[in-house]
């Protein structure tokens, strides 16, 4: 946040006023200096803060409730509707294993994709191994290579799959 | 966003207020409705604190924090206040005259206006617009509590959820889950409103705790500076636990300061409640609590009854968080920040090269003008004069506490197993929130101490007469 020089100078006026009034009222030079510096820096920064906040409020004015609830999904997947498709496919209270690889084929935790899936798919519960899971949710990985027998592999978005574990 | 969702969230917060009002009446802070107006913000914050702490305990023993459970709890706490008729002696409030009144009102109006702007942002801003932890960690836990009916060990002890900091206490997710129960759905887009209510409640509570101790011409400009600090807005956007921890801890510190200065056990009880809430919010609070009780113990050393009360308070605060730590121990939930690392001399010696970067990271965040304005520099400017000139125990307590908080943070960054570079970049800005809020609210307190040193402190009391500070009642009561 950059402070415009002219505004910083203008903030000195109320600061001087605060110094004068506080000193007259309380008789302590140091207390007056403290109050004046607090006023100066606040008056200098407050308009920037308000401007910043109002611009952000304008940015989100048109969001509907469903859009607001899905907002982080846009940051973790190029096709954010994939999470709704996962919800539609996996029944409530079912278990699933998150199977995510990176571009080199190494298993990874999944970062934002993992975090958003964990929260969005509740009350479906993630488990630590494919053997405990009823479903496999995979990204950049073929569910058939997860180490369990799966059926009905569905592609929900490019590189994002869901499959049911066969017992 | 449906307006009814916002109203239902407000209804949940009204329940917190009822609970807090009951607790405050039981402690003897108000008797009539008129008295309540002078402590209503403290009551609200105390209500969130007590419900949050009891919800954490309740979740740990198998309850679900459903709407009916919360309503019964708040009703019981609210009526508990009427078990006794307290004697309430209100101290006179400083009333500035003439130009000082104008400055005080201008700062107060600017503060209210700024909070109104933040309310607009909070109402519109979705979770996840800024930052990551708010939705990735805290919100996921809240959803799990709401949708799975309490602490489901498949989530809270499940290895698949290791990335959501399973060992962190539950106050924030519990309060969010209570909001969901009242909204009968997960209108997550409204959760910023809950965080705004906590911020506004905090600011108003600070004003009410200090109203009879700090002159308005000092209080309002300092409070405005703290609230308008860009770091506070950033923490509000993040909707994570750091700001909540900082607000509860800071209120606890202010209440403890009043206990040190006035030897009134009601303030210690309030301090312990807020500290218990801080402990139920984040693990970082364990170190802050140690600093808190150490500073309080030193400040009350020599007062036999004071030290006994402080020890009892420590016991109560720690007892409230035991059920949660028993739950995580019973379910073998490992910590990302193992306690052994903090006290292992071999580990500390081998990582001593982290001290310099840790100090650098904390100092650079704390002194950033574009984050915390002049909060810490001003406090450091004033502090030596307060200690040398007034020798007030309360001033010593404030400075000691602040120093110990920073010592703890350096220790935490030193002992932590994570990369210091990553902590310095991503963690230090949030870690300093608590000490900087403490510094911000103690700034007007210390400035007011300077005016108690016998100078010609001219202020007006309720009758409008100009008197010296000692005559007017801003002096601490004699013990």
Question: How do the strands and helices of this protein lay out in sequence?
Answer:
The complex is a heterodimer of chains A (167) and B (479).
Chain A (H helix, E strand, L loop, with lengths): L4 H6 L1 H15 L2 H31 L5 H5 L3 H4 L5 H8 L5 E6 L10 H10 L4 E2 L8 E5 L10 E8 L2 E6 L2
Parallel strand pairs in A: 1-2, 1-3
Antiparallel strand pairs in A: 3-5, 4-5
Helix pairs in contact in A: 2-3
Chain B lengths: L2 H25 L5 H5 L2 H21 L6 H14 L17 H27 L8 H16 L4 H4 L14 H13 L7 H20 L5 H12 L2 H9 L2 H22 L2 H15 L5 H15 L4 H27 L8 H5 L1 H6 L4 H12 L2 H4 L2 H16 L2 H23 L4 H12 L1 H19 L7 E2 L5 E2 L1 H4 L7
Antiparallel strand pairs in B: 1-2
Helix pairs in contact in B: 1-3, 1-4, 1-8, 3-8, 3-9, 3-13, 3-15, 5-9, 5-10, 6-8, 9-10, 9-12, 10-23, 12-13, 12-14, 12-21, 12-23, 13-15, 14-21, 18-21, 18-22, 20-23, 21-23
